[in-house]
Design a protein that fits this description.
Length: 579
């Protein structure tokens, strides 16, 4: 017995389509249509016909075996045999996060193939694996940010059972799973929601067109659609947290913002499940209200990505100064000091990139683990013209400095897949749209975007070319070779972070950054621990204390200490303790 339910408040007639056989559904309260079918169950294909249009996939479909345009298939959660009954979760505080894309993490590009590489992440010291979006999207390969069936795990990756196997296997290795979800827009292909109801509103506009309807007529059910989606991943797929894409584009003028409503519901679910559940926002507003408690008029989310840390580190280490790096490049070491002690560089200050002041100061009482820091992400690599990683331009010494600053810093550190061994493979923008017009529009749009920055058309990879995706697949043999010695360095840094509570201390007001006059030497204070970085072209002699001995905990580049002076070669870093 299966009860089919669909929300279509403006429809005059809704039919259930079972393999071409149509049956009328009954209209009920709140615009919900229902029909009980005794002989339908797990594996039954179906769709909905709304006012004669369709059949169309179920907006809440859990299974799209034939892609975004195909029929939905009934999926019963209790058929899966979980083995993680003893799993008590992973909190974000104190954790190290690892962002991966299922489709390029392995050559096969599936959940099951990714399981085969989880041991390496556990051995590295990762706590939480952040999986880029898996909601069903057009074609086989893509980033996932154009998903259209928010409840259905992408079938080419392995579908709902495949994702459950991945989560179950991660938990068996002590790894939590954070899933990237996109609630601010849907992709252009396979988006049938408007056939059913007012899921979008012209009251607000976004870069993707009409906004998701969070505050207009009919928005109660749309909000419920999104919140139910979040709790489905957390409860039924045993996921440990969600990364919420571009929350600044969730336009909501109601008294209680949908994010606060979501956070409240997830807190209640966490209590019921007796394990921590995290909500991590991506926002470009530099606004700590996202991670401020609801009791203090915030949204109550667990954490948010902090692009300012990335921009400060990137500008300092690469010297890039175009676009949003311009303000950070004026005085790179000062920019880094500002972000390490205040979370945001733009905190109510002038942004030349935006042509206005930007952001707001962070209350130092907010723990620093609520800000996720990184030197690379899918955005910061893939949105470059050729998808080049830091490893393509930085010396080994500077790569080690970047890792040391992130992994000894006060924030929650996140790695992007492959950076731990200086992956030589790029990570480029790729799509697999089946409609020729859409494919060409994406291709030309990408070329126009970078032509304005001086890139020749032939130098910008074609997103629709299968080779673009193939170039972006990690080379695991490269990790085994670790020719640049980064893997051992990352492992040592993560082990040190775990062993020394000073390095996970989340108090921003306890962090200090010393700079020399030339800007080549900086020292980050973490309790009795000092992270000494020399970015100059020559070695530096440093006296850290007149009356305390220095113990070198970890170093790169041949750092030495003779009992008084710490000698730090160019492009080197030392993590030391004053004793």
């Amino acid at each position: 017995m299966t009860t089919f339910r669909v929300w279509a408040p403006k429809a005059n007639d809704v039919e259930l389509d079972l393999s071409g056989q149509r049956s009328p559904m009954t209209s009920g309260e709140g615009g919900w249509w229902t029909l009980e079918v005794p002989d339908a169950g797990h594996g039954t294909d179906y769709g909905y016909v709304v006012d004669g249009e369709g059949p169309t996939p179920d907006p809440r479909s859990l299974w799209q075996p034939e892609g975004v345009h195909g029929p939905s298939r009934v999926y019963e959660h209790d058929r899966f045999g979980w083995t993680d009954t003893g799993w008590t979760g992973r909190q974000l505080a104190g954790s190290v996060v690892y962002e991966l894309h299922v489709g390029t993490f392995t050559a096969e590009g599936t959940f099951d193939a990714a399981i085969g590489r989880l041991d390496e992440l556990a051995e590295l010291g990762i706590d939480l694996v952040e999986v880029m979006p898996i909601a069903s999207f057009p074609g086989r390969h893509g980033w996932g940010y154009d998903g259209v069936h928010l409840y259905a795990a992408h079938e080419p990756y392995g579908g709902p059972d495949g994702f459950k196997r991945f989560v179950d296997a991660a938990h068996a290795r002590g790894l939590g799973v954070v899933l990237d979800v996109v609630y601010n827009h849907l992709g252009p292909s396979g988006n049938y929601l408007s056939r059913f109801g007012p899921y979008f509103t012209g009251r607000h506009s976004t870069p993707w067109g009409d906004a998701v309807n969070l505050d207009d007529e009919g928005s109660d059910e749309v909000r419920r659609f999104l919140i139910d989606n979040a709790t489905t991943w957390l409860r039924d797929f045993h996921v440990d947290g969600l990364r919420l894409d571009a929350v600044h584009a969730l336009v909501d003028e109601r008294a209680t913002h949908v994010l606060a409503e979501l956070a409240d519901e997830v807190d209640r679910l966490s209590t019921a499940l007796r394990r921590p559940l995290s909500l991590i926002a991506e926002s470009d507003r530099n606004d700590a209200s996202f991670v401020t408690a609801r009791e203090a008029n915030g949204y109550g989310l667990t954490a948010q990505w902090d692009d300012d840390v990335h921009h400060a580190l990137h500008g300092l280490l690469t010297g890039e100064s175009q676009g949003y790096y311009a303000d950070f490049a004026e005085d790179p070491t000062e920019a880094l000091a500002a972000t390490f002690t205040g979370a945001f560089f733009h905190a109510g200050t002038w942004s030349s990139f935006r042509g206005r002041t930007h952001g707001a100061p962070v209350d130092p009482r907010i723990p620093a683990y609520r800000f996720v820091a990184y030197t690379q992400t899918h955005d910061q690599v893939g949105n470059r013209a050729t998808g080049d990683r830091l490893a393509a331009t930085l010396t080994d010494g500077r790569l080690k400095i970047a890792a040391a600053l992130v992994l000894t810093g006060p924030f929650t550190p996140m790695l992007f897949m492959g950076e731990e061994y200086a992956a030589a493979t790029p990570w480029q923008y790729f799509t697999d749209h089946q409609e020729p017009e859409l494919a060409e529009a994406v291709r030309q749009g990408r070329r126009r975007e970078f032509a304005s920055h001086g890139w020749a058309e032939e130098d910008v990879p074609d997103p629709q070319d299968a080779a673009t995706r193939d170039r972006s697949v990690l080379d695991w043999d490269e990790r085994q070779r670790d020719e640049r010695g980064l893997l051992a360095w990352y492992s040592a840094l993560i082990a040190l972070r775990r062993s020394r509570p000073e390095l996970t201390d989340p108090r921003l007001d306890e962090v200090a950054v010393e700079l020399d006059d030339e800007g080549g030497l900086l020292v980050v204070h973490r309790g009795p621990i000092r992270v000494v970085v020399n970015l100059a072209e020559e070695a530096a002699s440093v006296v850290l204390s007149e009356d305390q001995q220095v113990q070198v905990l970890l170093e790169s580049g041949g750092v030495s200490y003779d009992g008084e002076v710490l000698e730090v070669p160019a492009d080197s870093v030392a993590v030391v303790e004053l004793a």
